[in-house]
Design a protein that fits this description.
288 residues, alpha+beta, 9-stranded antiparallel sheet, elongated
């Protein structure tokens, strides 16, 4: 898998001055566009589109300093429809506009080329199982929140605190299948997984029953799920679990992510410092 990802990165390098289609990158990596975007973001720490933009502007920066082409020629070569659009993008990456950089010989920022390699760390394995589930509903309360990569998500914490005890009791009573009990469900995430992008968050349960009129509901089609277990400090161990799923498990197993919600079942210790968790990720088997 990592070898194929690196071939897709070589394709990017060869076409920085032309159109780059995610569909073609996914074909080279032998995966879906959906999974490619998510896997790249987890491995590289930035969205795929942002990496392409930074690499283009790194190469464009060298051409600006070389002075062999006009600024408009450089802009057009790297896909910008106007000098103004190029100048805005250039300044966002380099901190100065292209004209100033050329006149002053300014120091520019460089996005290095990325390549992926497998690093074996430690001796502990990941606990997981693969589950087939029929169609089900997530029923509870929903809110739109920003994505937070590290630490507590204050928007989610405030949302849960605002749900009264009686409503929580009614929601919990609807649970009738695994994962049982009240769960956190993330849906409609931006494929880039960039910090601050928004997602739908459900505080609810997994059930075969329809939702009462005063509760929110998400219908989830039948499919395959990879279920991962973790124990440790809260919330860090949960966020590390999601990272490890995409940086270690997917590259080493014949599965890829598919569109669908992610479900997190968490059981906190009395002081809320530790947590046992199950993370349900929708997956599909890849061709071998």
């Amino acid at each position: 898998m990592l070898e194929r990802l690196n071939e897709a990165l070589e394709h990017i390098e060869a076409r920085l001055d032309g159109p780059i289609e995610v569909a073609e990158l996914a074909r080279i990596a032998v995966t879906s566009e959906y999974h490619l975007r998510r896997l790249f973001s987890a491995l590289a720490g930035m969205p795929l589109s942002e990496y392409v933009r930074r690499r283009r502007l790194t190469v464009a920066g060298a051409e600006v300093l070389a002075g062999e082409r006009t600024l408009l020629e450089v802009a057009v070569r790297f896909g910008y429809g106007s000098g103004e659009a190029f100048a805005r993008a250039f300044k966002a990456v380099h901190g100065v506009g292209p004209g100033e950089a050329r006149r002053a010989g300014a120091a520019l920022h460089s996005q290095p080329r990325i390549s992926f390699r497998l690093v074996v760390e430690g001796s502990s394995g990941m606990r997981y199982r693969v589950v087939e589930k029929e169609r089900f509903h997530v029923v509870g309360k929903k809110v739109r929140v920003p994505l937070v990569h590290e630490g507590m998500n204050p928007a989610i914490a405030d949302f849960i605190r605002g749900i009264d005890k009686e409503t929580t009791r009614r929601i919990a009573a609807l649970s009738d299948q695994a994962p049982r009990g009240v769960v956190g469900v993330s849906d409609d995430l931006d494929p880039s997984r960039a910090e601050g992008t928004e997602l739908d968050y459900y505080h609810g349960v997994v059930t075969g029953s329809a939702a009462p009129d005063d509760l929110d509901s998400l219908t989830v089609p039948a499919g395959t799920w990879a279920v991962f277990e973790s124990s440790g400090a809260f919330p860090e161990s949960l966020q590390f679990l999601w990272r490890d799923v995409f940086t270690q498990w997917f590259p080493s197993n014949p599965y890829r992510g598919r569109p669908g919600p992610e479900i997190l079942r968490t059981r906190l210790s009395r002081d809320a410092a530790e947590a046992d968790a199950e993370l349900w990720i929708p997956v599909e088997r890849t061709a071998t």
